[in-house]
Amino acid sequence: MSGGEELLRSRGLRVTRPRLAVLDVLSGGGHLEVEEITRQVRERLDSVSTQAVYDVLGALSRAGLSRRIEPAGSPARYEARAGDNHHHVVCRGCGEIADVDCAVGAAPCLDPSSADGFEVDEAEVTFWGLCPGCQARRSADE
Ligand SMILES: [Zn+2]
Ligand SMILES: [Zn+2]
Asked: Which of 15, 36, 69 is the last residue of a domain?
């Protein structure tokens, strides 16, 4: 049994070839758009519709096996790193996204100064800036 099959079963999900393929693509790391995920899934399976990939991503997200992020101005992206309350830093120049760690349990961002009575269980912070590549291009332009 592959790691992907075990993961799916552990979350009570039926094991299907498209689900295994999407998990495999996501386990490669990064923050991928649906278009890119579909392209890579098609390298593994003969024919998969974009809608099928959306359906799989929805099921995986609900089961906590993938996470959907959608920085302002960018299409939705998916990643395998879910449930650890990490954040993202997005480059204003090229749109590159990197993870920013936030430790589970001792995450200070889970204690907002005021939550208006809400019980908070997740914080999603998006940092914006320039990636190293764009910084280098900017100083070369100057
Ligand atoms: Zn950049
Ligand atoms: Zn991430």
From this structure: 69
Binding residues for Zn(2+): 91, 94, 131, 134
For the chain, percent helix, then strand, then coil, each to nearest 5?
A: 40, 15, 45
- Global pTM exceeds 0.85: no
User: Tens of pLDDT along 4-56?
Assistant: 999 999 999 999 999 999 999 999 999 999 999 999 999 999 889 999 999 99
**Residue 74 resides in a domain:** no
Residues around the ion ligand 2 (C-beta < 5 A): 79, 99
- The rounded Å distance from CA 99 to ligand 1 centre is 14
Assess whether 88 and 128 both reside in one domain. yes
How many Å apart are CA 4 and CA 44, to the nearest integer?
A: 14
